[in-house]
TrEMBL record:
The gene is rbsK. Belongs to the carbohydrate kinase pfkB family. Belongs to the carbohydrate kinase PfkB family. Ribokinase subfamily. Requires a divalent cation, most likely magnesium in vivo, as an electrophilic catalyst to aid phosphoryl group transfer. It is the chelate of the metal and the nucleotide that is the actual substrate. Its EC number is 2.7.1.15. Pfam families: PfkB. Substrate binds at G37, K38, G39, F40, N41, E135, D246. Its cofactor is Mg(2+). PANTHER family: RIBOKINASE, SUGAR KINASE. Activated by a monovalent cation that binds near, but not in, the active site. The most likely occupant of the site in vivo is potassium. Ion binding induces a conformational change that may alter substrate affinity. K(+) binds at D240, I242, T276, R279, G281. This is Ribokinase. InterPro entries: Carboh/pur_kinase_PfkB_CS, PfkB_dom, Ribo/fructo_kinase, Ribokinase, Ribokinase-like. The active site is at D246 (proton acceptor).
Length: 298
């Protein structure tokens, strides 16, 4: 069972020939409004891969809260996973251009009120993996990870969007996953995108057993445990890159949970990312375990 310290955002995306300039109105080909958020995406991507999922999510009291409730029902997630409280549900607005490049702005709203009291103790106690992203505040992540590590349970932090990592969270993070931009912000890559071995050693000394850095079409690398590992990206036609990082994170975590070595988990994670960039949107783009196995055989 996977427990997600979650975030929920309704993402509205339009597909445009090129990204708009300030002051410009563009015609857009497709419009997609999709339930998402890094936490919700992780939960759905993990479930697609066959994991039983529980977690803690907060939405506001508005029309998007109903969208959230419907989305959780559709996934068959436990009803107790979602709390409503006064305020706005998380919302995002984004553009995707022909090359699959995207930009997105997110207002986290009610997600920022997620608190340790929102964590269901029984659900947490059943978990054998706890995952979180930085769309959630530090306090519930710290509480959930502390409980997990006290039982020797795996934890994965996708430290996205970037912010300094609370040392108490870092100390209880088994796998830290970041993209290149976030890795650079943390001082783990130099200005040219090369790994900074000393900064990485220091980070690994502060808690994580494994650091994974994703690099878009350049693939990913990992440090720690079995030593440095490099995984190239699978060459696929790109529709849009939304959700690639979430698919990768879920792929890595669920594969490790299933007993894969770090190298094999990296390969499966990269395949999850590749399948997701080949499809429009995020939720419907995440592969099932069967699709992942078929992709890896081809
Ligand atoms: P994020 O969406 O968090 O910025 P990345 O863009 O680094 O994450 O993508 C995560 C992973 O998804 C990459 O490590 C890679 O394995 C896969 N991926 C991303 N973009 C592509 C691409 N254009 N082609 C193939 N795989 C990709």
């Amino acid at each position: 069972q996977v427990f997600v310290v979650g975030s929920f955002v309704v993402a509205c995306t339009v597909k445009v020939a090129r990204l708009p300039r300030p002051g410009e109105s563009l015609d857009a080909a497709d419009f997609l409004s999709e339930p998402g958020g890094k936490g919700f995406n992780l939960a759905v991507a993990a479930q697609r891969l066959g994991a039983a999922v529980d977690g803690a999510f907060v939405v506001g009291e508005d029309a998007f809260a109903d969208v959230a409730a419907a989305a959780f029902r559709r996934q068959g997630f436990p009803a107790g996973m979602l709390a409503r409280r006064p305020g706005s549900t998380g919302g995002g607005v984004g553009f995707v251009d022909r090359a699959g490049e995207n930009c997105l702005a997110v207002s986290l709203g009610a997600n920022l009120s997620l608190a340790p009291e929102d964590l269901d103790a029984a659900a947490l106690a059943r978990a054998d993996l706890v995952m979180a992203t930085f769309e959630s505040p530090d306090a519930p992540i710290r509480a959930a990870f502390a409980q997990a590590r006290a039982r020797g349970v795996e934890t994965l932090l996708n430290a996205s969007p970037a912010r300094p990592i609370d040392p108490a969270i870092l100390a209880r993070t088994r796998t830290l996953l970041v993209n290149e931009v976030e890795a650079a912000d943390l001082g783990l890559l130099d200005g040219d995108g090369r790994a900074e071995p000393r900064a990485i050693e220091a980070l690994l000394g502060a808690g994580p057993e494994c650091l994974v850095v994703t690099r878009g079409a350049a693939g990913a690398f990992a440090y720690g445990g079995a030593g440095p590992q490099v995984q190239s990206a699978f060459a696929v036609p790109v529709v849009d890159t939304i959700g690639a990082g979430d698919a990768f994170a879920a792929g890595f975590a669920v594969s490790r949970l299933g007993g894969c070595t770090p190298a094999e988990a990296l390969r499966r994670a990269a395949a999850c990312g590749a399948i997701t960039v080949g499809r429009f949107g995020a939720l419907d783009a995440f592969p099932t375990a069967t699709e992942l196995d078929r992709f890896l055989r081809e």
